[in-house]
Design goal:
Rossmann fold, globular, seven-stranded mixed β-sheet, 2 domains, alpha/beta
């Protein structure tokens, strides 16, 4: 792969190719093939089973948007859970928030955490924060065994295949609802509105049947299929559009902002039809 083009088949008939300068890490864990490569355009990149998970070039968009909209919609997000997210980027964003007292990450594959600590320190730096705790376990099982414990739960999963498929199910969202406190919020990455329309429509329907509030959030992540990406939020009480943006703390973000908090909820007609 060194000095050659790596291509990820993102969808049937669609691939993204990156020139790889160096393979920094390669291992086969119990769960998947883990690589960290250094690319010409996106810098260091985490690959799981040869699928792009994150890059140092554009990771901040994804990690800020999966976390900040939910955190700033909840008035007091003291206890936060992340399922997946072994690269550490989501935990890094959570521990920035002044109201967060504890951030727990449950990742099934310790190999991802170790590789990220060594080769993606910009993302994994949050693991060293005193607010953070890392648990190596099955996230679906962990959530199922938790009751009314968390203010915010973030589902930072891989694509809905293999072990991650269960993280996109109605049964899992019911477990998430049960694991949240009475005014809790969850958010999950939910793929591309160009290429995963049926998935987004189904998830939105499932979440609406479980949570009183359901919202779709948009952001632009260049290395993901189509560039335009969605996150789905389920809330027991609070509405993201009703947040007083003047009360949102300055958290040194690069994509998310007070204005983005509101504008990311504005959906183009072709996306809006998925949630109506």
């Amino acid at each position: 792969m060194i000095g050659v083009w790596f291509s990820e088949l993102q969808q049937p008939g669609l691939a993204i190719s990156c020139l790889v300068k160096e393979v920094l890490h390669h291992e086969k864990s119990e769960y998947q093939d883990i690589k960290v490569v250094d690319t010409e355009r996106f810098g260091r990149m985490l690959l799981l089973d040869d699928v792009i998970q994150t890059t140092v070039k554009d990771e901040f968009v994804y990690h800020e948007m999966i976390s900040m909209v939910a955190l700033n919609t909840h008035p007091n997000p003291e206890n936060v859970l992340v399922i997946g997210g072994g690269d550490g980027g989501t935990i890094r964003e959570i521990v920035k928030h002044p109201k967060v007292k504890k951030a727990t990450l449950v990742e099934i594959d310790e190999g991802v955490v170790k590789a990220s600590k060594k080769y993606l320190p910009e993302l994994a730096c949050g693991f060293d924060d005193p607010k953070a705790e890392v648990i190596i376990d099955d996230g679906i099982k962990f959530v199922k065994e938790s009751t009314a414990q968390f203010d915010v739960i973030l589902i930072d999963s891989t694509d809905p295949v293999g072990a991650a498929e269960g993280l996109f199910s109605a049964n899992f969202y019911k477990s998430v609802h049960n694991a949240l406190k009475e005014d809790g919020i969850f958010a999950a990455q939910t793929e591309s509105p160009f290429f995963n329309r049926d998935l987004i429509k189904r998830i939105n329907k499932d979440v609406r049947e479980i949570f009183p509030v359901c919202r779709l959030i948009l952001a632009n992540v260049p290395t993901y299929p189509g560039g335009l990406w969605t996150f789905t939020m389920g809330s027991k009480k609070y509405l993201p559009e009703e947040v007083d943006i003047e009360n949102i703390p300055d958290l040194n973000t690069r994509y998310y902002s007070k204005e983005i908090h509101k504008s990311c909820l504005v959906l183009p007609p072709f996306v809006k039809e998925l949630v109506e």
